[in-house]
Specification:
alpha/beta, Aspartate Aminotransferase, domain 1, Aspartate Aminotransferase, domain 2, 4-stranded antiparallel beta sheet, 13 strands, binds pyridoxal-5'-phosphate
Length: 364
């Protein structure tokens, strides 16, 4: 039988499609609720959006007809100053997502092994499949902590090239200890620490400053969460310097748009303003955690990120998601091992949290 997809590479044909979140306007017409009344707590975005200075600058930009700088020099300079690192170790991507793919593209030959510790951010498995990596899955324990002995054993057995770790982890918001980090970074593989949510940490620490001390450590960051720029797509990685020329060879030259770089630059130039939003989100997180803990059928996990994972008892987690959805409140449900009785709620504004809690009271 002729395969009608015979031009398409077999591993792409075998991939599961990514489950995208519906855009606001589509959701709004599906639910019959105007977009401004939707409460979007399903993708860990920043409910306050970018700082006003960003909106103003983009509205007045006179550079949108010009191709962007392939080396994103302006934002790299500011990031280097901020982190007290050299610009030559920083690469900018269209979100951390692009950098996850780019790292795999320059490191993975088909069949090479990558360690993944689910439940976690889905792009590690997605980009692994795209790049023909063989994923070695080391599931987390019931409390979402790492199975460190399992990882150490798998490294010996499978000789993987890469290990991706979200820290804080998505979807539970927990972090690894210094001891765990030390054991992982001493392994004979490339360790990618994804610090997408690091700005919301109260207990725990970033390992960004450690990159200069190792040849096998990469740290990823993003402007999507703390800076409210998810829609513009900009993130960065801090790399051992010898990696960077190789990444630059594989990167699309115009991957980061003029608007995205400009927005990130203005955010960095007005850091105290953006930090006010972070502080407010941390405050809201505490408020939401306390409120969720009052429900006998919800068990919220302490989180160091801008979302809270809850175990749902005695009620179907999927039903909770659906019933909130009908009221225009969007939260995340994952039909995945270890998560099917959980919901994940992104931290909204104080007003959104109040509405969510009122809606939850109507459910259980
Ligand atoms: C752990 C983690 N890394 C990266 C991202 C995506 O970041 P970006 O928007 O910069 O691609 C997310 C988004 O949900 C995430 O949870």
């Amino acid at each position: 039988m002729t395969n009608k997809f015979s031009y398409i590479r077999p591993h792409i044909q075998e991939m599961h499609p990514y489950e995208p979140i519906l855009p606001f306007d589509v959701l709004s017409s599906e639910l019959g609720i105007p977009p401004e009344r939707l409460i979007k707590l399903d993708a860990n975005e920043n409910p306050y959006g970018p700082i006003p200075e960003v909106r103003a600058a983009l509205a007045n930009s006179n550079a949108l007809h010009i191709y962007p700088d392939p080396e994103s020099r302006q934002i790299r300079k500011l990031l280097a100053e901020h982190h007290q690192l050299r610009e030559s170790g920083i690469v900018i991507g269209a979100g951390a997502d692009e950098l996850i793919d780019l790292i795999m593209r320059i490191v993975i030959e088909p069949g090479d092994k990558v360690i993944n510790c689910p439940p976690t951010f889905g792009m590690y498995a997605f980009d692994g499949a795209l790049n023909q990596a063989k994923l070695i899955s080391l599931p987390r324990r019931g409390d979402f902590s790492l199975d460190l002995p399992g990882i150490l054993q798998a490294v010996e057995e499978h000789k993987p090239r890469l290990l991706f770790l979200a820290n804080p982890n998505n979807p539970d918001g927990g972090m690894i200890s210094d001891h765990e980090f030390q054991q992982l970074v001493d392994l004979p593989l490339l360790l990618v620490m994804d610090e997408a949510y690091v700005q919301f940490i109260e207990h725990g620490r970033s390992v960004l400053k450690e990159v200069v001390s190792y040849t096998n450590l990469i740290v990823l960051r993003t402007f999507s969460k703390w800076a409210g720029l998810a829609g513009l797509r900009i993130g960065y990685g801090v790399f051992p310097e010898e990696f960077v020329p190789m990444l630059m060879r594989a990167k699309q030259p115009y991957n980061v748009s003029i608007a995205a770089e400009q927005a990130a630059v203005i955010t960095m130039q007005n850091l105290p303003k953006a930090e006010e939003n972070i502080a407010q989100i941390i405050k809201n997180r505490d408020q939401l955690y306390q409120a969720l803990a009052q429900f006998s059928w919800l068990k919220p996990y302490p989180s160091q990120a801008n979302f809270i994972l809850c175990q749902v008892e005695g009620v179907s987690a999927f039903d909770v998601k659906q019933r909130l959805r009908k009221q225009g409140i969007l939260i995340r449900y994952f039909d995945k091992p270890g998560l099917s009785d959980h919901i994940r709620i992104s931290i909204g504004t104080e007003e959104q949290i109040e509405k969510l809690i009122t809606a939850l009271k109507g459910i259980g």
